[in-house]
Structure to design on (95 residues):
């Protein structure tokens, strides 16, 4: 999320004025995050493939790409786990 959009939303909340453009929903944000995760994974795979085929790729670039992919996957897994826990907590609520 861009800082300008956060500041604009905060200013609109204080003044009570909303913009004509609706804010992106959770599904849109989740889709963008998954696209970014796929992009990181594709980049790592391309670097590994380039190294395996003997192209001129630095080892540290490949390792950094693999570590970035590992961290991104760990983050996505933790976010998924927290979302499942939140869903289960809401499901257990008594009405």
């Amino acid at each position: 999320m861009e800082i300008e959009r956060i500041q604009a939303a905060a200013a609109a909340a204080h003044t009570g004025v909303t913009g004509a453009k609706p804010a992106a929903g959770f599904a849109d944000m989740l889709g963008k995050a998954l696209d970014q995760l796929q992009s990181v994974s594709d980049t790592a795979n391309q670097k590994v493939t380039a190294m395996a085929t003997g192209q001129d790729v630095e080892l540290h670039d490949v390792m950094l790409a693999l570590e970035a992919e590992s961290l991104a996957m760990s983050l996505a897994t933790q976010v998924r786990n927290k979302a499942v826990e939140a869903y289960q907590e809401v499901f257990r609520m008594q009405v």
Notes: The two ends are 34 Å apart (CA to CA). The mean pLDDT is 85. Residues 23-92 form one domain.
